[in-house]
Structure formats: C-alpha cells, structure tokens
Design goal:
two-stranded parallel sheet; Rossmann fold; about 40% helix; alpha/beta; single chain; binds nicotinamide-adenine-dinucleotide; binds thymidine-5'-diphosphate
Length: about 350
C-alpha cells in the first residue's frame, strides 16, 4: 500500500504520518509539502530515515511535478492535508487560500483520475458549516447541515469540498471527505490559539484574547483525528462525508485560563483585544455517523490531552522557539502590534 500524504510537514499531516508509520509499518508513505511558512522539515526528522518514508518538496498546484510523482510512485491512496489553514491570514490575504485549497485540490484529483487510485481523501473542516448560536446548545453540525461559510479560509475549504463531490459524481472518482473540529497537540503551529498562548505565557507576554473570549470551539486531540482518517480511508463509504469531533466544547477564555493555571502564570497576562472580523461563535460536531458506521470514538480526554500538549511544548522548546524567532516576528507584529485592547 502506497499513500501520498500532502501537507505532511504541517501540524495534522505530520501527526498522521507518524500515526500511519506506527500503525501500518508495511505501508509506504510519500509526503508532498511545499514547505510554506507553516511547513517544517525538522518536524519530520523522526521518520526521515524510515525506508518506508519519502519526502518530496512540491506545490500541489504544480501539475507537472504532481503528475511526475504519481507516475513514479503509483499511489493507492491520496490524503490531502495541504492547505493554507489560518483564518486570520485568510482575512488579510485570501488569494493564496483559493489557489492552494481549491486549485491544488483540483490538480491532485486530476492526477488521481489520470493515474488511478483506490481512494482520494479530502481533509476538510467543520468551519464549512459556519457557526452555531451560543444560546442553542442543543444544535450540532451533522453531515446534512448546509454549507454556510464565514471566512475566506472556510469558503476555500467549502469550495474544495464541492469540487471533490463533483469529481465523485461526474467522473466516479472514489472520494471521501472528513470534516473535523479544532485539533490540538504536538507540532501545532504557534500562530493558533493553544500554542500561541503557551508560548506567550512562558515568555510572560500578554495573552491576546479576541473580544470577550466567549467563542466556543470543539477541541479534539490530533491523534484521534488521525485515527478517524485511517478508519475512513480503509472502511468509509465512497462518496460520503464524515464529521469528526469529540463533544468537547470549550470557550476560548476558559482555555486560556486553563493554560495559565497549568503553567503557573497569572491570569493578569490576559488582554482582551479587538475581535476577529466575522468571528464564528460556536462550532460543535455531531459525530454519530462515524461512530455508528466505523466505530470511531475519541480516546483522549481534553483534561489529559491539554496536559500532554503543554508538556510537549515544554520539552520541545527548540522546535517552536526556532519558528517564533523567524519571520513569525513580523507576522506577530502585523497582527497584534496595533490591535486595540477592548
Ligand atoms: P498547517 O498549516 O499546520 O499545515 C499545512 C501544511 O500544508 C504545511 O506543511 C504547508 O507547508 C503545506 N502546504 C501549504 N500549501 C501547500 C501547497 N500549495 N502545496 C503543498 N503543501 C502545501 O495546517 P493543519 O492545521 O495541519 O491542517 C491540515 C489540514 O487539516 C488542512 O486542510 C486544514 O484545513 C484541515 N483542518 C485543520 C484543523 C485544525 O484544527 N488545525 C481542523 C480541521 C481541519
Ligand atoms: P484558531 O486557533 O485560529 O482556530 P479557528 O479560528 O480555526 O477556530 O482560533 C481558535 C479560537 O481562538 C478562535 O475563536 C479565535 C480565538 N483566538 C484568540 O482569541 N486569540 C488569538 O490570538 C488567536 C490566534 C485565536
């Protein structure tokens, strides 16, 4: 079995590669990654010498490079993680989101059609469903919830999902889609909420909470997401969407307070800053379908997962300190430098 994993130098893709090489030691995994600001080759160091692993630096939009690789490797399965993934960046500059997330998906699926595969899996997000109101805790996203996006990021992911379903219906490409809630865990890029707050708290820097911090996200430990994808690519029904989430809703402010507590830092570091434009209020997944059809359930409780994650950031300072000492400094200044306190 040969699997192409795109975006494998990023957060979830790298965790998926580790998971697959551990769980299926006879599989060959080929990682394609453009190594954008979010991709980090040092992340893949633990598997670089594994004879069943190959890294290829390429842009999923580069048709020639992608076709050449498919011709060489003749993959059975393609799992597409490669994406621009940060909502705040998409608000600043949407174009690259449309290019990578939609056109890149098209190139990969064209390659799948040309060379033949048994499964193309699209890693999507619950953000394609838009958001839910805070005063309706009885509502959850199901696979039938209409697509209703808020940000350029979620719109580009929704566009890709529609294209994936069109390739299924029009060309019969054997596709599946997973729509997962917010992940957390090792190798999470420091621009995102949890690692940003850990890094800032450790440096006694302000912890910038957007608005009141009442927005709710449904957090899932990254390895639980990886296991769900493994189940879907092997046993999921072709042409189907599977929601992935662990019923673990938390308000942003409570997460930040928890991080302060775990690190022994004062809550006085928290500053409430200007809200994100179009900020989604609440995400909440109903995972009944993947549970009933594939037997998936999350294994890591948030209380344990967040401790493990904080421990990982404490023990792997070199990984994230290298990142935040580079071009990230300019990013941080641009996004947070002039952000008014509220
Ligand atoms: P990430 O930003 O950490 O990693 C993205 C990776 O894709 C990076 O290694 C980057 O170099 C690579 N990449 C970007 N553009 C590329 C291109 N044109 N060609 C090849 N490689 C390219 O993202 P992540 O958080 O690991 O998310 C992975 C996928 O999971 C994304 O598709 C995202 O939409 C989806 N997702 C993420 C979450 C989450 O909580 N992080 C939740 C649900 C779904
Ligand atoms: P993020 O990690 O960017 O994920 P997403 O927007 O895809 O859910 O943000 C998670 C939540 O945290 C979101 O409601 C925005 C909020 N947030 C802050 O309050 N401050 C920050 O500095 C960041 C990065 C996010």
């Amino acid at each position: 079995m040969t699997i192409i994993v795109t975006g494998g130098a990023g957060f979830i893709g790298s965790n998926f590669i580790f998971y697959m090489l551990k769980t299926h030691p006879d599989y060959r995994i080929i990682c394609i990654d453009k190594l954008t600001y979010a991709g980090n080759l040092s992340t893949l160091k633990p598997v670089m010498d594994n004879p069943n692993f190959r890294f290829v630096k390429a842009d999923i939009c580069d048709r020639e490079a992608i076709y050449k690789l498919f011709e060489e490797e003749k993959p059975d399965i393609v799992v597409n993680f490669a994406a621009e993934s940060h909502v705040d960046r998409s608000i600043e500059d949407p174009e690259i989101f449309l290019r990578t997330n939609i056109l890149g998906t098209q190139v990969l699926m064209d390659a799948c059609r040309k060379y033949g595969i048994t499964r193309y899996h699209q890693v999507s997000t619950d953000e394609v469903y838009g958001d839910l109101p805070l005063d309706r805790p009885d509502l959850f996203f199901t696979e039938d919830t209409p697509i209703h996006t808020s940000s350029p990021y979620s719109s580009s992911k929704a566009g890709a999902d529609l294209l994936v379903m069109a390739y299924y219906r029009t060309y019969g490409l054997p596709v599946t889609i997973s729509r997962c809630s917010n992940n957390y865990g090792p190798y999470h890029f420091p621009e995102k909420l949890i690692p940003l707050m850990i890094a800032n708290a450790l440096a006694d820097k302000p912890l910038p909470v957007y608005g009141e911090g009442l927005n709710v996200r449904d957090w899932l430990y990254v390895e639980d997401h990886c296991r769900a994808i493994d189940m879907i690519i092997h046993n999921g029904r072709v042409g189907e969407v599977y929601n992935v989430g662990g019923h673990n809703e938390m308000r942003n402010i409570d997460i930040v307070k928890l991080i302060c507590k775990e690190l022994g830092k004062p809550e006085s570091l928290i500053v409430h800053v200007e809200d994100r434009k179009g900020h989604d209020m609440r995400y909440a997944i109903d995972p009944t379908k993947i549970h009933n059809e594939l037997g998936w359930l999350p294994e890591t409780k948030f209380a344990d997962g967040i401790k493990k994650t904080i421990k990982w950031y404490l023990e792997n300072k070199e990984w994230w300190e290298t990142i935040i000492s580079g071009e990230y400094q300019q990013y941080y200044e641009k996004m947070y430098g002039n952000r008014a306190e509220v």
